[in-house]
């Protein structure tokens, strides 16, 4: 699903790192924008319900690389997760697959 999303969105994958097979994958990607392609750290996790701690983990890993983060998950994001995106995690984007 992740690669389908990337191809539909015209996102170029630079690097892929499988953490847990069929569960967790890290990506370095280039996202198209009005000012050119932007580098992003992306974290995809196969979970039914994603929460604020999942987003925080992606945020920390993206900060280590000095990049904004894109968190991809097929499940719903919890209420705490949405609150964290609005208040604390402004450089993290969430996309439901």
Low-confidence stretches: none
Largest sheet: 5 strands, mixed
Helix/strand order, N-terminal first: HEEEEHEEHE
Task: Tell me the number of helical segments per DSSP (H or I, 4 or more residues long).
Answer: 3
Can you describe this structure?
Helices cover 30% and strands 44% of the residues. The protein is α/β, with parallel strands linked by helices and 97 residues long. The strands form 2 sheets. It has a 5-stranded mixed sheet, sandwiched between helices. The protein has a two-stranded parallel ribbon with strand order 4-6. Strand 2 and strand 3 (36-45) form a beta hairpin. Helix 2 packs parallel to helix 3. The termini are close together.
